[in-house]
Amino acid sequence: MKVIQRSVVREMACLGLEFQVEGSVVRGPGTTAVAVREHGGHGEGHVDLGYVLRLGEGEGPVVWDCTAGLGRTEEEQLQNAVRMWRTTTASAVVELLERRGVHGEHFGPGAAGGVAGWHAIQGPACVFGFRSGPLGDWVAEHQLLPAVADAVLPYLTDPAVNGVKFFFGGREGDEVAEVRVNGEPVAAASAALRAMPWPRGERLAWVRSFVLLAADPEELAGIERLVTARRARWGAPGTALLRRWVRQQQQR
């Protein structure tokens, strides 16, 4: 738990935000926080992280996401898992709160790249593995959400905010393609993702991407002001975070 919490503090600082450990959660600006819970049944290096938007409100939205990392030790695995989460999921949430176009792209309801009835925020994608260049180039040029929208819409059960995670890759003949909505796998959406013509190579390479769907971003305006005020104190993030997608060459 301590390794995960310290990693959350460090990774959120990369987004220009100050978080600090307070008991079982990592508190952020205003009413934001990150909660941690174990992810059962998947071995070491897996963890569930929940980005809490209104801490203290039992019905307040929480964006949950399971994440995993590679590494030689369990500590390295957990650190890389949190880094992967920050790059994709946390970036999308921060972009939802700030709406500055720094940490993700916005697509209005029904716009190309979006989905009907929801405001979509696409965070950066993590492309990692061996010889991942072709896969990364393909991801940078294609939108994933429209291809699975019909399968995803029935599972958007939260009236305020829903999270859609994409994980796919591997190598030809040994592929994985999974779409999760609010942490739960959606078989039809996963099948649609598998059917897309992303490059299959001879070496292992994967993509992790996260899209946040908000019914009304303006409802979070109070949180946004608190985050922006804290950011003014701590400064803006580095220009490296402006990239559309990020390649990460991890453990060999």
Automatic annotation (TrEMBL):
UniProt cross-references to Pfam families, sorted A to Z: DUF6348
InterPro entries: DUF6348
Protein name (database record): DUF6348 family protein
